[in-house]
Amino acid sequence: MSAVTQQLMETDDLSIRTDLIPIFIMGKKYDVPSTLTIQKALEYAGYQLIRGCGCRGGICGACATVYRLPGSAKINVGLACQTVVLPNMYLTMIPFFPANRAVYDLDELEPDAQTILKYYPELAKCMGCNTCTKSCPMEIPVMEYISAALRGDIEKAAEISMSCVMCGICAARCPAELGQYNIGIMCRRITGKHIKPRADHVWEMIDRINSGRYETGLNELINSDVQKLRRLYVERQTEPHTGHEEWTPDNNSNL
Amino acid sequence: MGYTPELLELIKRVEKTRPQRVARKKAGEEFPALTLDERKVRLEKYHPDYRAGALRELKVGPSKGYSVAQEIADQFEAKSRIDPDRIDLNEVHYETDVLVIGGGGAGTAAALMAEEAGAKVIIATKLRHGDANTMMAEGGIQAATKSWKDSPYFHYLDVMGGGHFENDPLLVKTMVLEAPKVIGWLENLGCMFNKWPDGKMFTLHGAGTCRKRMHYAGDMTGAEIMRTLRDEARNRIKNIGVLEFAPAVELLLDEKGSCSGAVLYNLETEEYFLVKAKSVIMATGGSGRLHMQNFMTTNHYGATGDGLAIGYRMGIRVRFLHATQYHPTGAVFPEQAEGLLITEKVRGAGANLVNIDGEQFVFEREPRDIESSSIIRECEKIGKGIPVPGQKGKFGVWLDSPMIDLLEGAGTVEREFPAKFILFKRYGIDISQLPMLIYPTLHYQNGGLEYKPDCSTEIPGFFVAGEVGGGVHGANRLMGNSLLDISVFGRLAGQSAGTFAKDRGEIGALSVEHVRKYHRELEAEGVQTDRVSPMVLPDYTSPEVKKRQWTTNYVGSLR
Fold first, then answer.
1. Is residue B153 assigned to a domain?
2. CATH number at residue B338
3. Which helix (H) or strand (E) holds B248?
4. How many angstroms from the chain centroid is the CA of residue A168?
5. Mutation for B interface: A96, A200, A239, most B CBs within 10 A
6. What is the dihedral of CA B74, B129, B215, A200, to 10 degrees?
7. Once rounded to an integer, what is the mean pLDDT over residues B98-105?
């Protein structure tokens, strides 16, 4: 495919792009279409991205970006793939941040505040300035989960930090030098492993599988011709959409 | 920001039919699903794979004569990035037991299991560790874990039906039997699946499932799995090394024909490095960034099919690459969100697809290829698509997300789809109140390199896991089976490769003879091209910029 068609695909019809606006990439001025995200604007300007570009869909956290608008001292934050350019924005990406990360053995961790403090003693230095919360592009109240971790409410910290994409802007802005996102994932893993009750039905099913219970049925399917498979497929009973958890099929065969 | 006045006006028609549609659903009445025969007709008439010129017969390599997507054929019928006569195979830069190529879900799961099998592991990955399609998977992961209503038997039937009964049966059997073990394994690693207070996991329907077996973590299941696996790999830093921004551009064999490592390219310093390994796991994922037929894609930046190209060049056959998956619901508005995946869970939770008149035109839980074909039909044939503002000739249909709050209670959309809710809120659209405008988007590589249930291949020492492999999904993957695929086969590949490495004797002299042979075959078949593969990164440089790059030398899409 030619580069021309690729470009059209990513940024749509160039012929209607008369609406160029100036932006300042690391202080240098470029004129870019006003409807682009910062990421596409960088490409439009001529950058071939190596760092600072991952999923292009707002979830991988590769494209942390900070910017300032004229007439204000405020530093704004955003993911480059999600944030639309604004006239005269001054921007830079922070594609990597060297925050502290502890190495730990999840199996041995106790679900309490002492554990988090042992691996991340800097947690105690949080001065409650709330800069982390103000700099989260996912709008997570970061300081709240840091406080929860400090109190030993690991589950709360896990819940609040759930939609963290680990982009690192909070850590980059933190005057107490915390690596919030690494503390967040430790809390989530402790919660998933040690605090939330186990899903017993999963382990029961694993026992059933290990006992060889499904071998005969599956091997019959493997040895069936397409005709028979189609029939079994069509005849299979579908659990109703609005059914309850405890719904059971009309007959028990092959369960 | 937000919808245009024209769109808001059109949305009124959706709102008008919504109460009846909700009432029908509450009464258990569904839009009639297509029969198997009707499905076939719909696919052949409207699926992009069936368009004239979509596929091309391969002129070279182990699957010569097989027709695959043009864009993949371009990657296969291309020269290596390295000149086999200029490479010094005696200068090895890294040595390890197991080399994992790809730092996504499959690769990371493989690394963990290989490490548990006693191996020293290197993960080589093109972007950052975890920047992968796994991270973007939203809806969930299928597994028959509820024995009172489900079993691997029914999961098997669903997988085969979704794949049009062409799937590799042994791979499917392996996947459905391993599925509950994977859920247990992830729970043990601290993955936070949505659970009831008693620990029972939430499960939902996906399209083409007969039982609710989609386990999930909000609408960021893939991200939760990926960041957990990555975190665990980082805890095992003593035995798992990660080389980021270092894509593999060629595989190495030894003189006896066993896979023995790879050539890596440091994207930042532009150096090449040799890794010598006792076994190699290919886990590079898919190829959406090849933009088949110019479709927009949901895939991450690095999904350029690198592993396909170099695996094929080494001699691994491919299958099901004639079938590309178009996800039915990619955002088409606002423009900034274009191509973005709207998880199938939205339809699983009950949201209808409706046309410009607010009419439902398809059952919302058809398998993906059928659903996509039906949307394309509604826009192109029936002519009831909604014009996308500012984009002449482009149409979409409504995905009626507000139905979910009406069916399941206010606040459900925000709670169940937090990532999408925030994203659309940023664009001034509240998806719990207003529908989303969508169109099919290039989503998944159904096929890939041939491999066996233990992930081994025709070439000793070479293992395959995840989207780069082909067979388990047949010609169409069901929702929730890709996170399952990467977890199941990632783990198995790690175990197999770890064991293989332990049992393997000395590695013989390294060789890239297969590259020379492939180049000769290209020449013999009259393939004259300056294409190189793998692509590594897509090229989105504007033509205007290129015109002014007077001294820039492009090798393929890389500067």
1. yes
2. 3.90.700.10
3. strand B248-254
4. 12
5. A239
6. 140
7. 98
Of B418, B440, B462, at which residue does a domain stop? B440
Q: How far is B343 from chain A (nearest CA, A)?
A: 12
Q: Chain B contacts of A45, Cβ < 8 Å?
A: 545
Only one residue has tokens 């971790």, namely: A149
> B525 lies in a domain?
no
Report yes or no on B377 lying in a domain. Answer: yes
Task: Say if strands B318-319 and B272-282 run parallel, antiparallel, or are unpaired.
Answer: unpaired
Based on the domain organization, do B111 and B183 belong to the same domain? yes
Q: What is the mean pLDDT of residues B374-400?
A: 93
Inspect the interface and report whether the beta carbons of B187 and A193 lie closer than 8 Å.
yes
Name the residue range of residue B99's domain.
79-323+446-511
DSSP run (H or E) holding A4:
helix A3-11
B412 and B459 in a common domain = no
Do both B146 and B280 map to the same domain? yes
Instruction: Give the CA distances from residue B20 to residues A72, B222, B378, B466, in Å, rounded to whole numbers and listed in that order.
Output: 51, 35, 21, 42
Whether residues A112 and A40 fall in one domain: no
Domain count for chain A, please give it.
2
A79 vs B: CB within 8 A: no
Q: What is the CATH number of the domain that holds A190?
A: 1.10.1060.10
- pLDDT tens-digit readout, A170-215: 999 999 999 999 999 999 999 999 999 999 999 999 999 999 999 9
A169 assigned to some structural domain: yes
Task: Judge whether B33 is closer than 8 Å to chain A, CB to CB.
Answer: no
- Per-residue tokens: A109: 């961790």
ipTM, two decimals, is 0.93
Based on the domain organization, do A53 and A130 belong to the same domain? no
Yes or no, beta carbons of A202 and B187 under 8 Å apart: yes
Residues B102 and B221 placed together within one structural domain of the fold = yes
- Using a CB–CB cutoff of 8 Å, tell me whether B529 touches chain A: no
Structure confidence by residue, pLDDT tens digits, B235-245: 999 999 999 99
Q: Give yes or no for A156 touching B (CB within 8 A).
A: no
Instruction: Decide if A94 contacts A172 (C-beta within 8 A).
Output: yes
In angstroms, how far apart are the furthest CA atoms of chain A?
73
Do A29 and A75 have their domain in common? yes
Query: Domain for residue A125, yes or no?
Result: yes
Q: Which residue has the tokens 């961790």?
A: A109
CA distance B382 to A139: 42
Identify whether B529 is part of a domain: no
**B146 at the A interface (CB within 8 A)?**
yes
| A61 and A126 housed in the same domain | no
Q: Is B47 a catalytic residue?
A: no
Residue of B21, B313, B322, B347 with catalytic role = B347
Tell me which chain A residues have a C-beta less than 8 angstroms from the C-beta of B549. Answer: 46
Question: CA of B436: how far to CAs of A234, B338, B369, B382, in Å?
Answer: 32, 12, 20, 20
Q: Are residues B317 and B355 in the same domain?
A: no
Domain count, chain B: 2
Q: Is B93 a catalytic residue?
A: no
CB contact at 8 A, B89 and B262:
no
Domain-embedded: residue A235:
no
C-alpha dihedral sign at B21, B22, B28, B32? positive
Per-residue pLDDT of chain A (255 residues; tens, 9 = 90+): 333 334 344 444 444 455 899 999 999 999 998 888 999 999 999 999 999 999 998 899 999 999 999 999 999 999 999 899 999 999 999 999 999 999 999 999 999 999 999 999 999 999 999 999 999 999 999 999 999 999 999 999 999 999 999 999 999 999 999 999 999 999 999 999 999 999 999 999 999 999 999 999 999 999 999 999 999 999 999 998 877 899 999 999 999
Angstrom distance (rounded) from CA B288 to CA B136 = 13
